[in-house]
Amino acid sequence: MKLLQTHIPNQLPLDPRTLRHTPRNLDVHNVSGGQFVYFGVTKSIDKRLNSGRSLSMIKTRMFLKIQSQCKNRLISISIGIDGIPLSGSSKHEFWPILGLINQIDSSVFVIGIFYGKSKPSNLDFLNLFVEEMLELENQGVTINSVKYDVRISSVITDTPARSLVKSVKLYNSYYGCDKCIQKGEWVGRIVYPELISTVRTDLDFKTSQPNLHHTGDCILSQLQIGLVSQVPLDYMHLVCLGVVRKVVRRWVKGKLPHRLPGRTIAKISERLSVFKKFLPSGFQRRPRPLNEIDHYKATEFRTLILYTALPAFLKLVPRNYLNHFLLLHTAMFILLSLKADDEQWNELAHNLLVRFFEEGKDIYGIEFCVFNVHGLLHLSEDAKNFGNLDNISAFPFESYMQNIKRMKKSNSNYLIQVANRICEREELELNPKVKESSKLLSSDRGNNCFALTCGDVILISEIIKCNSDMDVEIICKKFHDKRRVKFYPLDSLKLGICHVSNLSNNLKLKISLSQILYKCVLLPNDKDYLCLPLIHTIK
């Protein structure tokens, strides 16, 4: 920068900290057995709405309920609270409070961050956040001469963090369920074997004194938030890292009679390896062999349960195990789609999860009914309130927390380092991020399979020209045969899942983008292909 000054004098600062807007002073609070830096909510909301981002309309039951209680237009935010260790060799942790505005395609922002030698000893580190939210709830916020009401729509955490934030018992306690009052049973571990139990309500939670479920007063109870209905179960931890991992790991590394033969595991792993080149480019991680199951990330389990499990396990996993696993696959496919809060589809997903729970108890024994499996019985209710379970997922928060971990460079002043980087990032990232359309036409393998409104499934070979934003001329091949998947819990064609075969020769078509129903994941399956909708592209 000093060199540049000789060519363009008085145009650039001499110190990079000035260029990056590094704060000169940070207000560090000693609280909850560690240190805490607070950035605030209002500033982040104001910045995002002043950067050209507009509020979209949300029609979920929870949003409409909150909006009906407000006088002005609503800004709803999801809050993520969780811990992230600095390394595997120490107990030092960051506990960030993260926010996400629901109505705009916005990035995650940091509200505050705690650093300590262990998790926070109490909830005092949330005091500044609660004080500001109380002010926002009472006074709202004015941006560009428009007044908005601000509310928290959901608090998203994993199970241990949820017990800390809500001041309730852990999942391995007799009364550890956040959604119902069922008492667990001890069978070498705490299990919840009953199918039906009395549900908890927001009012019960707020008026209850410390009892069998509560461990103390919850500081969030001061806010206008339902601490049962608006603290959902996060499917990333509950399903992906919980139930799916539990079941598949039992097949791979469990005890007999549930452990599969080594040659079967090898064949499944071989199929997963073949799928690598068939998955769309938007998938962050490619499938790995099952013997690496202990190192799978949540996104890999998500890909497995939604897309690759069916063609990978078909004719290799025993029928009773496969049929049982498909119940979870089908239910999650519904709850992660636009059908999630549809009354009939939601009830169907719940019934499938009930069957998964009951049949799992018969197949694997009562010890199968641990907290995560029991939590499946409450997932459909969260989907009724919030729609697609990705709306209340910890995935965006977990991704950002990995960025926080990478902000630490030197081995001193960890909190100051990370807080400075967070401030710099907020100052410099002014422009909204524009996501590339998931339905963008492509002729590349893995990205070239689409379902049309007429029911045809096509593979694009070449894109000739686009006459306008709506019309495109392509050369493609069409699958002539399409049939439902056998042994599926329902007619798979209703979900767009099918076997396709008998590919035609090249056809020249002129279509409009409105004729594209969704993008597909096309995976080889014996002599044909299994076609599954890419869920987030479904209209």
Structural class: alpha+beta
Q: Could you say how many structural domains there are in total?
A: 3
Low-confidence stretches: 430-439
Distinct helical segment count: 15
Taking Cα atoms only, what radius of gyration do you get, to the nearest Å?
25 Å
Q: Count the E strands.
A: 17
Oligomer: single chain
What share of residues is helical?
A: 25-40%
- Average pLDDT figure: 90
Binned strand content? 15-25%
Backbone shape: globular
Please give the largest β-sheet: 8 strands, mixed
Q: Termini distance?
A: 50 Å
Describe the structure.
By secondary structure, this protein is an alpha+beta fold. It has 3 domains: 16-155 and 415-434, no CATH class; 235-390, no CATH class; 449-537, no CATH class. It is built from 15 helices and 17 strands. It has helices at 2-7, 16-19, 42-49, 61-68, 127-139, 159-166, 202-207, 235-253, 262-275, 298-313, 319-335, 343-364, 371-386, 395-406, 414-428, and strands at 28-31, 34-38, 73-81, 84-85, 93-101, 109-116, 141-143, 146-156, 185-186, 190-191, 449-452, 457-466, 471-483, 498-503, 507-512, 516-525, 528-533. A hairpin with a 4-residue loop joins strand 12 and strand 13 (471-483). Helix 11 (319-335) runs antiparallel to helix 12 (343-364). It starts with a helix and ends in a 6-residue tail after the last strand. Residues 430-439 have low confidence and may be disordered.
